[in-house]
Amino acid sequence: MTDFLGALLPFWLQIVGAAVLGAIVGSFLGAALVRLPEKRSVVTGRSACDGCGRALTIAELIPVLSWLAQRGKCRTCGGPIGGWQLACELGGAAIAIGAVWLADAGLTLAAMLMGWQLLLLALLDLRHLWLPRVLVGWLAASGIAVVAAQAWAVGSFDPILVSLTGGALGFGLLWLVAKVYLKSRGREGMGAGDPPLLGAIGLWLGPLGVVEVMLGASILGILAAIVMLVSKRSIAADTALPLGTCIAATAWPLFLLQGLG
Questions:
Q1: CA-CA distance, 121 to 247, in Å (whole number)?
Q2: What gap in Å lies between CA 113 and CA 199, rounded to an integer?
Q3: 188 in a domain, yes or no?
Q4: How many domains does the chain have?
């Protein structure tokens, strides 16, 4: 579908369309980022100001532009509209643009789907140190679906075998690390959602991708620790770092570079 549209539309129009679509999806992700930790429905209920509860107008729901026009504040109570919302909208747009620009032929929609899911998971882990199993499950299911479509297209079961191997390696690798840490230190050293997340990503990227993601996530984690030290924030043995965020931030660029595992 994207290849067909690409043949009909000039590239600049594809980019503009992707940016608009991505910002709209990002707006939904921003609502999910707020509502999911509060156990509120993401699909029902009108959007409202978190401060005064006033229902937002259509104009106030326009992604990015409404935030900028209101300078990040509610028009009624002056309460702040969190920067997280703007980050989701800009991130969603950037993912859509990156997918159109850089993804392999035939994988544009898959790259968007993967990127948007990883964006929400990364921000949930960064903000709440929480990786909902349901969302990780959707990431895994969509990965299997994309790989199954590829296997059908090439007439071979090999892509599915590679995918399943990557999923098993991703989950097993972090599960083993967590168990060894627990046994040697006597306390949990990793969030329960990290092994399933890497397993889900392994379904998309395959076993080699799992290794590359772990290397990239480790580098990001070291850089985050350096930033914390430079900013004079204390780091102790039990300081929590969002490993899931580092994993997600590494996985999507790798998908753009190499495609499916």
A1: 10
A2: 17
A3: yes
A4: 2
Query: Could you tell me if residue 110 is inside a domain?
Result: no
pLDDT in tens, 16-75: 999 999 999 999 999 899 899 988 888 776 777 666 666 777 777 788 888 888 877 777
Q: In terms of domains, do 197 and 237 share one?
A: yes
Residue type, 221: G
Three-state secondary-structure class, residue 48: strand
Q: For the chain, what's the residue count?
A: 261
Please check whether residue 227 lies inside any domain of the structure.
Answer: yes
**What residue type is assigned to position 240 of the chain?**
A
pTM of the model as a whole: 0.90
In the chain the first and final C-alpha atoms are separated, in Å, by: 22
Cα–Cα dist 184/49, whole Å: 47
Let me know whether 93 and 146 are in one domain.
no
Domain holding 233, by residue range, is 133-261
Q: Retrieve residue 19's tokens.
A: 């940016």
Domain membership of residue 187 (yes or no) is yes
Residue 50 CA to residue 34 CA, distance in Å, equals 10
Which run of H or of E encompasses 190? none
Q: pLDDT tens across 139-167, in order?
A: 999 999 999 999 999 999 999 999 999 99
Query: CA-to-CA distance for 173 and 214, rounded, in angstroms?
Result: 10
| DSSP assigned state of 223 | H
